[in-house]
Amino acid sequence: MSKPTRNTKKAAQGKARPAATKSKNSAASRSKAKPAPAKKTLTKKKPAPASKPAPKKAAPKKTAPAKKPAPKPAPKKAAPKKPAPKPAPKPAPKPAPKPAPKPAPKPAPKPAPKKAAKKAPAPKPAVKKPAAKAPPAKTKPVVAAKPAPAPAKPATKAAPAKPAAKEAPAAPAKPAAAAKAPPAPAKPAPAPAKPAPAAKAPEPTPAAPAVVAEAPAPAPAPVKVLSSLPLPPPGPTKSGALFYDSHMHTPLCKHAWGEPEEYAQQALKAGLKGIIFTCHCPMPNGFWPSVRMAESEFETYVALVQRAAEAYKGKLDIRLGIESEFFPGCEEYIAGLHQRADFHYVLGAVHWQAKEYLNKFETGTIENFRRIYFDHLAKSAESGLYDALAHPDLVKNYHPDSWCFAIVKNTVATALDRIAATGIAMELNTSGLNKSYSEMNPGLEMLRMMAERKIPVVVGSDSHRSNRVGEHFVTALNHLTEAGYENVSYFLNRQRIDLPISDVLASLKKAADHNA
Hints:
Blueprint (H helix, E strand, L loop, with lengths): L1 H15 L5 H12 L1 H10 L8 H15 L5 H9 L29 H8 L4 H17 L1 H5 L3 H4 L2 H4 L3 H5 L8 H6 L9 H4 L1 H6 L3 H11 L29 E2 L14 H10 L4 E4 L20 H14 L5 E9 L5 H7 L7 E5 L5 H7 L4 H17 L5 E2 L15 H18 L2 E5 L14 H9 L4 E4 L12 H11 L3 E6 L2 E6 H15 L1
């Protein structure tokens, strides 16, 4: 019994000290080598021993760890695990935290009383300012969310703040402030200099984003031009002219040719009483810029129409209108645009050709895209922004070879019901005869459906060249009569004026002959 105890002690010492000399290892291996054969005999003859197997089994268990240190690679692996890496990190963190908290509390209380003593009145107005800003914050919870990250960025505010003195955790929560403090040689001088601008900086920052958010909403300053010319007397002119062409453009839209005076001269030849320029309106965010005037050209557009109106005063009535885009999400901008000048006529238009429109809504079949277009046509009427809707079935030029009115007739009927409920007018656009699907916009069948719902109609040439002013007007008026209309309309001062179609037809021929 004494021998195994000594062996066990030696085994324990061998485990604890793997770095012992080779002689000790060899001695241990020799002493342990003796029970090795005993294991073999025991393992082969397990049933033979009855009382002695217990100590012998205990011996091999103790010798088992001896086999592990016996191979040389095992102590090599244990050696790198036991060297100084484990104790090294333990003493390293112990001295590190001790000096860190000691300097941190020392500089923290020193600048705090200095700033508090010098700027005792400063925190009081600071508390009053947010109190004054609190009532607007109630109306806009988003504003309250914005100042929250603002104080987190300027660490200078948190240092003089009173919660640091009241709550101990606030001081250790700012190691960054402690790091900035040591490079500054003079503690009192730079400390007040830094928080002073920092305190002023956060005040303008919340105000700036609020202004930026509200800036894009209002449109530029209104022009309010063309209000000086009086309206012409009702009825025909001396030449017998009675009607207006209510849709034409200027070179500012980048796809029209000819000065406004050239359009005016052609209107006289066509037997018209007046014309209304409706150039493509500017749009925000660079929406389809290649077919419209730029925002900076709006006043130029107004001036061009004003110039022509003055030049033809007493000969032809020339009024300012605009072809105003409808695109979901731009309603607020369009509403502001309509306040920028004294428009006589605002013509709403859904242009499916726009890249932005196609990217957003061309997601399904051709027929589904056309149904989306008619839904937007109805929504433009329901917006209340426009006097009339331009070229109502323009979408038939989208894959014109597959256009079949019968397929979309139910969709059109639903849209016309919604449009009729608003009281808005719709346009019969004669330029459809010059498009890929050669038919006026709208076609005769849709025109009949409009007449059934008593939707007023305005006729426009949509001229992009001067020689098309008043083009196909006689044909258009005959289409209206065939569809069931008796009257045709135009707008002045955004008020609809209705005329009998028969009177308009007679006036066109009479005035054209007079002016020839």
